[in-house]
Write a structure and sequence with these properties.
By secondary structure, this protein is an alpha+beta fold. 12% of the residues lie in helices and 26% in strands. It has one helix and two strands. Strands 1-2 form a two-stranded antiparallel ribbon. A hairpin with a 2-residue loop joins strand 1 and strand 2. The termini are far apart. Keywords: DNA-binding. GO terms for molecular function: DNA binding.
Length: 57
């Protein structure tokens, strides 16, 4: 699927809602961008750590 967006004056762009749903993105998620070549950017949802999940004492 291809969706087009226009880059704004301040270099901002909105991730299409359909992609947000498919990727499970929500407010305050951490995203990374990787430049693969001069025309391809890889977007990933990141997790900084799992250190607080299922923590046993």
């Amino acid at each position: 699927m291809r969706i087009y967006r226009i880059l704004g004056k301040k270099g901002r762009i909105t991730i299409p809602f359909r992609f947000q749903i498919q990727m499970g993105l929500s407010e305050n998620d951490i995203l990374s961008f990787e430049l693969r070549d001069h025309n391809t950017i890889i977007l990933r949802k990141e997790r900084l750590c799992d250190c607080h999940k299922n923590r046993s004492k």
